[in-house]
Every structure is written in structure tokens, then in C-alpha cells.
Amino acid sequence: MATDEQGIAQARHEASSDDTPPRGRGTRVRRQRVRAAWLFLAPMLIVLTAVAGWPLVRTFWFSLTDASLSSLDGAQFIGFDNYLVFDDGWYGILADPLWWQSVWNTLYFTLVSVSLEAVLGVIVALVLNAHFRGRTLVRAAMLIPWAIPTVVSAKIWAWMLNDQFGIINHLLLTIGLIDAPLSWTADASLSMWAVIMVDVWKATPFVALLVLAALQMLPNDCYEAAKVDGIHPAKVFFRVTLPLITPALLVAVIFRALDALRVFDVIYVLTSNAASTMTMSIYARQQLVEFQDVGYGSAASTLLFMIIALVTVIYLYLGRRQLGGEQ
Amino acid sequence: MTASNVDQAPGRKSGAGGTALTLLAWLIGITMFFPILWVVLTALKTEQTAFSMTPTFIFSPTLESFRSALAQGSGYWHYALNSVITALGSTLVGLALAIPAAYAMAFYPSRRTDFTLVWMVSTKFIPAVGVLIPVFLVYRSLGLLDTRLGLTMLFTAMNLPIMVWMVYSYFRDIPVDIVEAASIDGASTTQTMFRVILPLALPGLASTGLLALILAWNESFWSLTMTDYHAATLAVYTASFKSGEGLFWARLSAASVLTIAPIVVLGWFAQRQMVRGLTFGAVK
Predict the structure, then answer these.
(1) Alpha carbon of B219 to those of A45, A136, A233, B155, B252: distances in Å?
(2) pLDDT of A23 strictly over 70
(3) Which residues of chain A make contact with B174, given a CB cutoff of 8 A?
(4) Which compartment or compartments is the protein found in (chain B) (predicted)?
(5) Which residue of A44, A51, A241 is in closest CB contact with B98?
């Protein structure tokens, strides 16, 4: 599938790129096309630059100043002091243990939740791909968690996880898994898992859908052949199905990982600013809004952006190498 | 055909394997759906029943919570209208921006196309918190705070990369020869786009629009930070039900149900489109 696509893309590129003019057509037409292309692209580029690019540059600039929410205009340039400075001991974000805990929490949250979502997503997709009674209904029910606002789903779960009146504790007590009600969102050792559980519940349908689409595009003859040869289903899955759905899975995982690294609302609603679940986004927001320290908060935001970019680059590099090796 | 992908012996489908599979599928479905069921049940309870120490499934339902969530003072319809306007508005503006951009990249690719795509997606690395203050400052000086226009613009920018990406992937499925043929026949670029390509890509555009609609409807960070009342959406409405030590859970549940109901109904009717939208856009 990937090879095909590349082939098409390449052919298309050769057919209409600037370097190889289509046969029998003059440069005038080509120039006209390039102008049209730019004209078509411009609105999108302008909007994205204005709403995403420019604020990012400003955030970086703020991170080099001592701006606070009350005195933005009187901000002084202080270089990289917000990041790290030696003044009778190390100060700045890079010397703040809470920042490092947020980094660790974010990476931990991302790794665990995205891994769980990938595994469960594949299982759910395999099940949904089979024929069973009520398939349409189950598939629709599966979609709902993904399709509702995070604030709402976080509130729903806060209610279900409530230590006194929550249904989760009640069910666990009834079947005897726990002896006393657990305070899911307040207990530091449980809250990260509570947050991960909610995220997995909400995002698994997304992964499952992407994988399901890939499954439905698989050629059937591989399976026929495997069946004729009497190969064990598990082996068929690992040798045939999994490699074929890997591209789709990689896309799902990168989308999810980008969201998970920036995670904010689900954690904010469930556990607020608690240190045990503080992520980089929560840390930055706390500095910016609650402590009104725009310079410091902006530095945290800049670091967060760089960490996400770095993780993505590494992931894409590894993903491309793996896919390349298979072709 | 698809069954054999999972169940390697389709002949056994109706046998023990089939039953086990059906059970598993339903178990998964019910687990995923349970929280929604629970919030609907809670919404139908009185506050006293909702707060019983032993949560119950059997009770006499009441619409009391819905009534108070919809009451005059709650402003539900005000928030709902804002949600509809901002979600629809951002979807339409987003499509208007994404279609030409994707068209240029799909049919007139150049050496810069890959770079543009990557740059576009890289704006998704930006944490919303990270650009909060600059956006807030610009909005304050332009008088866009707490306006529907301001919120619509933010939603548009938020969804634009994924919309361009999706439309681009639909356009790439259309053979480039069609564009060539149209231009040989004397059609202008705009004519080719509107008369030839858009009709061909219509299902894909519908899926993209639907996805953008859902994402905008569900957005909560910007609606909570950039609006107060005038442009506040249903996400703000739900969040405004302070749970505190868990007071008014039944009412909060009713509010939640009212917030998600329109999008769930829409998603239900457009399920096929939604699955298509999600998958084609990202997989291909």
C-alpha cells in the first residue's frame, strides 16, 4: 500500500512539478500555475502564521523577559535567566524539581496511555472488523466517548470516581476487589492511573477507527493462502496483519502522542494542580495564569514546544526507518 | 469477507467462536458506553437519589434536573446558539481556506509542498497554553475577547492543519490527468476546481466538515479562557456547574447530557461519513 502510494505521488510529482514541464506546454502556463498555487495557498498560510506562528514567536520573546501579567509593557530583557541562571545557587525552570516532575509525568502519561490505546485499539478494531449481531450499534456506541467534549467526559468520570458516591468504588466493593473506598483523584499513587484510565477510555475509539479502516483495506488472498497452509491464527496476525496495519497504527499513535504530550483539560478537571499528575501544560498554565509570571511561564511553554518537536522528530525518524526496512 | 480477517475460520462463525466473539464485542461496547449510560441515569435522578451511598440502577426517573438545567436563568439556549454558530462558522471558513490550499498542494506540487505540509502539521506541536498570553493580548487590543468572531477564528486555526491534510489526501486520490484534461479543454484553474474536482471530492469534503464540526463543538480550552458570557459555548455551560464537594450532581449530569446530545445525534446519523472522514484523512 505504502509503495503504491509513493509510486503515485512520485508519478504525480514528475507529471506536474516545476522541474519537468508537462509535454508540449510552454513556460507561460507553468508560471501561471505556480502563481495560482501560491494564491490558493496564501490564505491558509496567512491564517496559520497569524494565529499559531506569530503567538509562538511572541511566547519565545516573553520567555527572555521578566514580564508579568500586570506589567507586560515594562518587561526587561533578561536573556535566558528564566531557563537557568546561577545566582548563589541555580535558579530557573531547569533547576526546578517540579518542572522535571512535570516532564516525567507527561512522558509517563504519554507512554502508558498511548501504548494502552494502541494495544486496545488494535484489539477493538479486530473485534469490530468481524461480523456479529448488532455490529452497527456497538460501533456507534464505541464512537461516543471520542465524540464528546473532554470537559464533559472528565466531569462524568469525576462523578463516577467520586470516593463516596462513585459507581466505580461501589462496583469494586461489591465484587470484593477492594475493602475500602479508594479516593481515586486525591490519592497521589492512584490519580495518575485514574487520569490514564479516562484518557484510554476516550481515545481508544480513535485508534480503533484508524486501524479498522486499514483492516478493511487488507487484501483477502493472504488470509486465504494462510488458511490453506494451516497457519495458526496468532502467527497470521503477527506475520501478516500487524505488518500491514502498521502504517495506520503509526499515524494513530503520532496523533495521539501529540495530544498526550500537550494534555491539559482531562487532568485539570480531575486533579487540578496536584503535583502527582502535573504535566508540562498544567505547569505552564499555573505559572502564566495563577502566578501571573508571563516570562517564566512562557519559558516553560517554549520548552514544552521543543520537547514535543523533539519527540516527534525521533518518532518519525524511527517510524520511517522501520517502514523502510520492511519494503 | 471482512470476517475472515479476524476469525480465521469463517465456517465457525455461527458456532462457539462466533458466540464468544459476539459476547466480547458486546462487552467492549458496553464498557465503552457505560459512563454515558451512567450520566444519563444520574440526570434522571433526584439530587437525593444521586447521592445515595449505594448507587442504584432502579429508581423512578424524573425530569426535574433537565427542567432546572433548561430553566430561563440557566441560559442553555444562549450557549447552544453560540456553540452552533462558532462550530458551523469555523467549519465553513476552514473549508474555504483548506480547499484551495489542498488543491494547490495536490495538483501543483513543488519542492516546497512537503515543507509546507510539515510546517502546517508542526503548528500542532504548539501547546494551547503556550500561545495563550500572546493570543489574549492580540484579542484584547482588537476587541475580540468574548466575541463569536474571535472564537470562530481560533477554532478555524485550530482545525485548519487537519482539514488541509484531509482534503489534500482526498484530492490526491483523484488522478492528476483529470486536471490536465480539463485545462487542455480550456478550463481555467478556478473552473477546474469548482466544476471538476470539488464534485468528485464531495464525500471527502463532507467528512472533513463533519470532523471539524465535532472538534469545534468539543473544544474547551479556548472557549473557557477567551470567553466570559457573550460568546461562551456549551463547554463553558457545563464547566460552570461547579461540582465542588459534589453538590448538584444530577443537574451537572443533565447539563452534560444536554451538551453532548446534539453532537451524539449528529454523529449517529453521520456515522458512516464520520468513520470515512477520520480514517481516509489520516490513513491515506
Answers:
(1) 22, 27, 42, 8, 18
(2) no
(3) none
(4) Cell membrane
(5) A44
Q: Across the interface, which of B133, B137, B267 has its CB nearest the CB of A147?
A: B267
pLDDT score of A130? 82
Per residue, the 3-state secondary structure of A118-147, as one string, reads: HHHHHHHHHHHHCCCCCHHHHHHHHHHHHH
How far does the CA of residue B227 sit from the closest CA of chain A (Å)?
Answer: 15
Mean pLDDT of chain A: 82
Mutate to test the interface with B, among A41, A69, A211, A268 (most CBs of B within 10 A): A41
pLDDT for the residue B5: 43
Structure confidence at residue A6 as a pLDDT band (50, 70, 90): very low
How many beta-carbon pairs under 8 angstroms link A with B? 333
Other beta carbons less than 10 A from residue B164's beta carbon: 26
Residue type, position A199, single letter: D
> At A90, which helix (H) or strand (E)?
strand A90-91
* B150 within 8 A of B231, measured Cβ to Cβ: yes
**Coil, strand or helix at A77:** strand
Q: Do B275 and A212 touch (CB under 8 A)?
A: yes
Question: Residue B57: what pLDDT?
Answer: 77
Q: At A326, which amino acid appears?
A: E
Helices (H), chain B: 3-6, 16-43, 47-50, 64-70, 76-107, 111-122, 132-142, 148-172, 176-184, 189-191, 198-218, 221-226, 234-239, 249-269, 271-283
Query: Domains of chain B, with CATH numbers?
Result: 15-65 (no CATH), 69-278 (1.10.3720.10)
- Mind listing the pLDDT tens digit for each residue in B143-175? 999 999 999 999 999 889 888 988 888 888 788
Interchain CB contact of B239 with A (< 8 Å): yes
State the pLDDT at residue A17: 44
CA–CA dist B204, A144 (Å, integer): 21
Of A38, A215, A262, Cβ closest to residue B127: A262
What separation in angstroms does the CA of A287 have from each of A35, A148, A297, B32, B127? 45, 29, 5, 36, 14
**Residue of B99 and B262 predicted with greater confidence:** B99
Give per-residue pLDDT as tens, B186-242: 888 888 888 888 888 887 888 888 888 888 988 888 888 888 889 999 888 887 776
Domains and CATH numbers, chain A: 2-17+86-326 (1.10.3720.10)
Window A:272-311, CB contacts with B under 8 Å? 280-281, 284-285, 288-289, 294, 297-298, 301-302, 304-305, 308-309
Cβ distance A150 to B120 less than 8 Å, yes or no, reads no
